[in-house]
Amino acid sequence: MSIMEIFETMAYGPAPEASSLALAWIKEHEPFQLFINNEWTAPAAESYFESSNPATGKGLTKVAAADKADVDKAVSAARKAFPSWSKTPGHVRARYLYAIARHIQKHARLLAVLESLDNGKTIRETRDLDIPLVARHFYYHAGWAQLMESELPGYQPVGVVGQIIPWNFPLLMLAWKIAPALAMGNTVVLKPARYTSLTALKFAEIMQEVGLPAGVVNIVTGEASKAGEALVNHPDIDKIAFTGSTEVGRSIRKATAGSGKKLSLELGGKSPFIVFDDADLDSVVEGVVDAIWFNQGQVCCAGSRLLVQENIAERLINKLRARMENLRIGDPLDKTMDIGAIVSPGQRQEIQNLVDIGVKEGAQLWQPSTACPADGSFFPPTLFTNVAPASTLAQVEIFGPVLVTLTFRTPAEAVEIANNTRYGLAASVWSDNINLALDIAPKLKAGSVWINSTNLFDAACGFGGYRESGYGREGGKEGLYEYVKPAWLAAHHGRSGGVKAATHAGEQMEASNGNGAVHTDALEEFSATDAQDGYGFPPIDRTPKLFIGGKQARPDSGYSLTITGPGGRVLGEVGEGNRKDIRNAVEAAHKASGWGGASAHNRAQILYYIAENLGAREAEFARRIVEQTARSYADALNEVRTSLSRLFSYAAWTDKFEGSVHLPPLRGAVLAMKEPIGVLGLACPDDYPLLGFVSLVAPAIAMGNTVVAIPSPRAPLSATDCYQVFETSDVPAGVINIVTGEREALSKVLAEHHDVNSMWYFGSAEGSKAVELASISNMKRTWVNYGRGRNWLDRVQGEGEEFLREATQVKNIWVPYGE
Ligand code: NDP
Q1: CATH superfamily, with its number, for domain 22-48+60-243
Q2: Where in the numbering of this chain does the Aldehyde dehydrogenase domain appear (predicted)?
């Protein structure tokens, strides 16, 4: 084509990136081995699988397929390396991370080409986005390694971490996992996705170059059913970090339930891209391109649902179609391409299947006239209109370049449709009215909200989901907590050979309550006064009911449970709650969700008021504790006073556990807001009947959640005595709901309930496992004690940031600005 012709047509010429160096590197290493203890190690079974280039369908190389024996070897290398790596000074770890970042930059071009060859994504994206973000992640976390000692006092590394990553951002996901793990002093065994192992193996080579101590990072390539499952089930792994499909996340939750392994899950999404009628539509069109055609739509937070205000829908769709006609799809190594190949023929077929279902369900399909390359796994950019909100297309994650469009009329309707999904990973809001955009952002159930922008990521800004998009955050300070545990917990309950786990609630009480001995004289002292009430009459019978929606409610079962003290003396009766009562309580808790919108000052006032009213009755509450536990009066009074102090602590925290403003490298700011999780189920411990109850309820409500609490079944009367305290302290109806009864059965109902957003459980080891298993239904967050005791009197163990973090989730709202 002559220069004149090019001027006329403005057609792109080819701009190929050379692949010769990457191909030579591949050839040199073929077949790729496992990276264990800083050595290339052949798989025990001598088994290899083929990795191919999605853009051509042709084989690239052979990669080792690890099985259980190899995973065992890698885990033991990581275990062996842990004591010394975890004690390596932060500054030294920072130097290693810094060196890794530098080496990533030195090999940036090779890594970018390898990623394009192996994954099918365009070189434009690997070169300009994936690899720079990888380097940034290591630089950023070098900083946290340096600062860990001063900024995270009282925390220790978790131990040996198993990490499983997907194929859509192979090296970037590796960086998201490995950088914080190493910064916090953990050692790692990482399994890449089987389609995309090559950049992880190049990364292994970089580990050798920087001289990272042997065993700190181990890479086991292989298939899910062998390497992946062996890693998840390995008894010497302390934490699993996973990114991938919600379905596999669910199975990992199931496999690890009750094991005590820490777990973070970054799962799927169906993120809304909301366009109001005052938005700049040309910017919106470019935003949509980035939202759904970036990385061929194989992005967990892809803006796959376009919600557009009805009055501009037609105009926007026309502009979008015109833009789609100009998207270039083809060879990922051509620098002028917008869209590359889908990772595998199987994934391509999955996309096609969902598109076919969409057409069958009546949605209207539109694809541009530009042809896809015939070889390789390409799929054209696709637009659906006339999509029903409940249809498969609108609900199921397609994980391909397929955009579905829905319309709305009012902001309220936009929020409703946006939240009408089981996921909650991300959302974009487009409007030139910043008041409107900032009003909508907090209402969206999503971990990241981008205003007039989309798919922005940075190491300083935590990323992660609400609801079935998983739990845990990656990036930012919040992401670090996934890789540490409180030092007191590590000292008392190291997973390997730590303190014996108490299996029964009773054991727990004895284990952690230093004053567990029965004081019979205290019992006698009170039985005399109680039996006759000082006047020679029997005491007036008080049978507390349940506390639901601010009122005392009879249990549905119509049955009561008799509560006896340690001497066998009958103390009273409480209602025996059942499934129906829990449902009613959850409904009441939802109705009270306005509590989350109350000002922090207001919530603090109410916590102080509860303390005031409880304080006025401290002798009575102490007496009740003595009756139920036969501890000394002085000890019981100490429990009441500690409960008062705890209420004061959380009243203080309401307006001090704040979010932050991150400063990623962009013109703008990112507001990291700590939001309540929603409705929390709380199963309270047996030790310290009042303090255990207050220690869970207070942080939960301080942060704006509403709760359904199951008091200690052995000593529920301290909690039921609080009804009147709550009623006189202006606690809005439904904010605190209390259902007495059998802890295990009621906890299971709460953990299974789809409208409960998180479940805290402090009971037995078996009960903890049952809660983790039951939580799979809607992938709710859980916080359980695995039957281990905790000293509730101790401020380090019984209150503070650990509780507040469990009571909140972080939403990052990206606000770019400038003309
Ligand atoms: P998976 O969730 O199956 O795979 C992600 C990673 O987990 C891979 O390393 C995989 O190994 C591994 N894995 C799979 N099953 C297990 C298991 N039981 N135990 C341990 N490890 C396991 O994603 P797919 O690649 O199969 O993609 C399927 C769908 O998942 C996509 O269509 C998309 O909808 C979604 N997805 C979502 C992602 C996200 O970021 N949210 C990322 C990738 C996929 P292996 O590669 O060997 O199978």
Answers
A1: Aldehyde Dehydrogenase; Chain A, domain 1 (3.40.605.10)
A2: 40-486, 568-787
